[in-house]
UniProtKB/TrEMBL annotation:
Catalysed conversion reaction: UMP + ATP = UDP + ADP
Designated name of the protein: adenylate kinase
Record GO terms (molecular function): AMP kinase activity; ATP binding
Broad EC category: transferase
Length: 244
């Protein structure tokens, strides 16, 4: 109870502008770039640059990475589409990358399909390598990575392989009953949109994904967004994070 109160207080604090950014009218994203001296949106390079051991990126180029977290059906994909439309990010859904592996009959396809059907988590290296490939083959330098990391082990594997942390993390907070309702109404033919798998996904979200959310809250990178209401209402909560 006390722990929940502390975490909820941390989340509340992270939705306010941190003191570093509080006196400017620029968007949080622009201020973060400025504060860390990042030159990211004006670059024309198509390569993702790995940081050197001291954390600097060759030629000063680094992608701006936003992780988008939330339970099943919390609206991550829906809101990512709005952010892409309005702010030109490239959307990489970890779930979609895994589903593409299934469709392309890759060597991991059958394993991924069974894992998704069970509502479990695909081995971290598999997912991170897909994300890495997608970033490397994109011209973009600002990405929304949707539905990842789902576990602390996912997070550590990303840090090890990619060699960087996200710039910010969005978390769509939605009550479980609403998430279940949305998933069961989705009707996109997903193998995991059924009552049993959703129950397992919620269990995993609570046990393994919430600790990741808490980790970023403690680091001051988390923007907790109320995921209830209409899509428009939710997007109006997201907009100020990115708006110029
Ligand atoms: N605010 C909302 N109110 C009602 N329905 C919504 C809302 N936002 C999204 N939906 C619908 O709920 C379903 C789940 O949304 P979405 O796919 O964006 O969630 P998600 O977080 O990406 O879920 P998953 O983790 O399962 O991929 C979709 O059918 C979507 O159209
Ligand atoms: O990082 C990830 C992302 C997804 N999965 C598996 O895919 C399904 C569906 O993911 P969505 O984000 O809801 O589209 C998820 O339940 C996991 O089984 C994963 O293992 N790792
Ligand atoms: Mg989704």
């Amino acid at each position: 109870m006390v722990r929940e109160r502390i975490i909820s207080e941390m989340w509340r604090r992270t939705t306010w502008l941190p003191p570093l950014f509080s006196s400017s009218k620029r968007s949080l994203v622009n201020q973060i770039q400025g504060a860390y001296g990042l030159r990211i949106w004006r670059t024309t390079s198509s390569e993702i640059q790995k940081p050197e051991e001291d954390g600097t990126f060759p030629r000063g180029i680094t992608p701006f990475i936003t992780f988008v977290l939330g339970g099943p059906g919390s609206g991550k994909g829906t809101q990512c589409a709005r952010i892409v439309e309005n702010f030109g990010f490239t959307h990489l859904s970890a779930g979609d990358l895994l589903r593409q592996e299934i469709s392309s009959n890759s060597e991991n396809g059958a394993m991924i399909l069974n894992t998704i059907k069970d509502g479990k988590i695909v081995p971290s290296e598999v997912t991170v390598k897909l994300i890495q490939k997608a970033i490397e083959s994109s011209e973009s330098h600002k990405f929304l990575i949707d539905g990842f990391p789902r576990t602390e082990e996912n997070r550590l594997t990303y840090e090890r392989i990619i060699g960087a942390e996200p710039n910010i993390v969005l978390f769509f907070d939605c009550p479980p009953e609403e998430m279940v309702k949305r998933v069961l109404n989705r009707r996109q033919g997903r193998v995991d949109d059924n009552a049993n798998t959703v129950k397992e996904r919620l269990k995993i979200f609570r046990a393994l994904s919430l600790p990741v959310v808490n980790y970023y809250a403690k680091k001051g990178k988390l923007y907790k967004i109320d995921g209830t209401g209409t899509e428009d209402e939710i997007f109006e909560r997201v907009r100020p994070i990115f708006a110029a």
